[in-house]
């Protein structure tokens, strides 16, 4: 199954919930908030006033609806905001016309928000052209991810699709070579000759690269570790990879 042309709101906005994160988004001049949604039973005059100052519409919804939209029933505090992520787009859109992003990361089963956030921060700093964050099987792009990225998630080059397996198929069809980053058994990263168009798969914290994605890999890459350590945390491994691409001159300058 391939990505359709329908653009989901999850491919346009990052949703933040809770009074403090929403107020911070409204007060940040570099962010554009599309709308605020308040629960019918929520009293939040400071948020209403901040939204009015920023010219952001406020909508009312049932408390249950707010919880559903936030995806968090304990910490939403009856308020959420949809923040425009200007570099977020569907993977299908990124692959539909030239120039294609030459280097992309594909997150496969990474469920810890802190890891996703730090990968987004690192990839953006390194000038990576795309980070594929599937809507299923990976931590949701929520305030925990935003916090871990130190706010960079709002302007990270996020590419969206349904699953990692779908993304792997789309990238393969578009002419990308796919490489899995593994702890052992792969070609040493610093010595590998990489093609001009490549996608690098970062597997989950416990299960690694999923079987469906592994079937489409061109090969495996390993980070040399002469010290007595079995493996790196996935976000640390992503940082090594991203800045090796900078060293090679194959990642674009950050925008």
TrEMBL record:
Q: Which Gene Ontology molecular function entries are recorded, alphabetically? A: methyltransferase activity
Q: Name one GO biological process term.
A: methylation
What domain of life is recorded for the organism?
Answer: Bacteria
- Establish whether keyword Transferase is in the entry: yes
Domain (RNA 2-O ribose methyltransferase substrate binding) ranges: 15-89
A Pfam family matched in the record: SpoU_methylase
Gene3D superfamilies according to UniProt = 3.30.1330.30, 3.40.1280.10
Cross-referenced PANTHER family: 23S RRNA (GUANOSINE-2'-O-)-METHYLTRANSFERASE RLMB
Q: Which family, according to UniProt?
A: Belongs to the class IV-like SAM-binding methyltransferase superfamily. RNA methyltransferase TrmH family.
Protein name per UniProt: RNA methyltransferase
Origin species: Amycolatopsis dongchuanensis
